[in-house]
């Protein structure tokens, strides 16, 4: 019987506003500003982090 790969329940890895800005070719300042405006971010310590649900909310906010 072939060995099954071990599947771990890995947590979602948050991104920094700089990482999202680079992917979207936008400025980190604009990403931060919009995230604060729609309250779609998490603070870990004093650092802003964007989980996938926050990135989706930002994408919808920028579509309008």
Short description:
The protein has 64 residues and is mainly α. It has 3 helices and 2 strands; from the N terminus they run ααββα. Strand 1 and strand 2 (47-49) form a beta hairpin.
Write out key terms for the chains shown.
two-stranded antiparallel ribbon; mainly alpha; 48% helix
Structure report:
- This protein has helices at 17-24, 28-38, 52-63, and strands spanning 42-44, 47-49.
- By secondary structure, the protein is mainly alpha-helical.
- The protein is elongated, with a radius of gyration of 15 Å.
How does the SSE layout of this entry go?
Layout: H1 17-24, H2 28-38, E1 42-44, E2 47-49, H3 52-63
Antiparallel strand pairs: 1-2
Helix pairs in contact: 1-2, 2-3
How far is it from the N-terminal to the C-terminal residue, by CA? Answer: 53 Å
Number of strands: 2
Percentage of residues assigned to helices: 40-55%
Give the spatial strand order of the biggest sheet: 1-2
Strand percentage, roughly?
5-15%
| Multimeric state | single chain
| SS summary, helix count | 3
Q: Which spans of ≥5 residues are poorly predicted at pLDDT below 50?
A: none
**Overall geometric form:** elongated
- Mean pLDDT figure: 90
Indicate the radius of gyration in whole angstroms.
Answer: 15 Å
Order of helices and strands: HHEEH
Main sheet attributes: strand count, strand direction, barrel closure = 2 strands, antiparallel
């Amino acid at each position: 019987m072939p060995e099954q790969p071990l599947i771990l329940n890995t947590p979602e890895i948050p991104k920094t506003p700089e990482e999202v800005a680079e992917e979207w070719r936008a400025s980190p300042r604009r990403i931060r500003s919009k995230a604060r405006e729609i309250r779609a971010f998490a603070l870990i310590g004093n650092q802003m982090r964007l989980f996938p649900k926050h990135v989706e909310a930002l994408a919808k906010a920028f579509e309008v």
